Amino acid sequence: EPEVTQTPSHQVTQMGQEVILRCVPISNHLYFYWYRQILGQKVEFLVSFYNNEISEKSEIFDDQFSVERPDGSNFTLKIRSTKLEDSAMYFCASSGGRGAFFGQGTRLTVV
Amino acid sequence: RKEVEQDPGPFNVPEGATVAFNCTYSNSASQSFFWYRQDCRKEPKLLMSVYSSGNEDGRFTAQLNRASQYISLLIRDSKLSDSATYLCAVAFYNQGGKLIFGQGTELSVKP
Question: Least crowded by CB within 10 Å, which of B2, B46, B71, B103?
Answer without folding.
Answer: B2
